[in-house]
Amino acid sequence: MTSNSSDRSCGAVEGGLFPPGGETSVKASNFFAYSIPELRRLTGAQLLKIWGACAPYSRNWLYLHCILVLACCSLIFNLALRWSDSLILILFGLGVALTVPANIYFFLLFKDRRPELRQYIEQNWSEFRS
Known about the structure:
7 helices; about 65% helix; elongated; disordered N terminus
């Protein structure tokens, strides 16, 4: 009997490793905007589209915000590199650096704009259903 790892009829797959309807995919907004429920489960392109449309700032200000968030990420990761030679702590610092500043930024930016986010998603539902 041969085994094919891509065969979806094996017993392990039927046991619930994959949800009904297909495989799961990791969405960018799960890591960067988890604190806002309306932004969860969006792809990176969808997150950028909502960010540009619903943020109360111009595109140039959003670019500046992006640079500042990246600078915070870099600072956190560089501090983790300086404080420890342990690979596990460095990887932990990388994880914190990539997620915490972006989550704080999106929370502060969109915490009072959730009705506008919902309205924008409803108006452009064909683009955001996934």
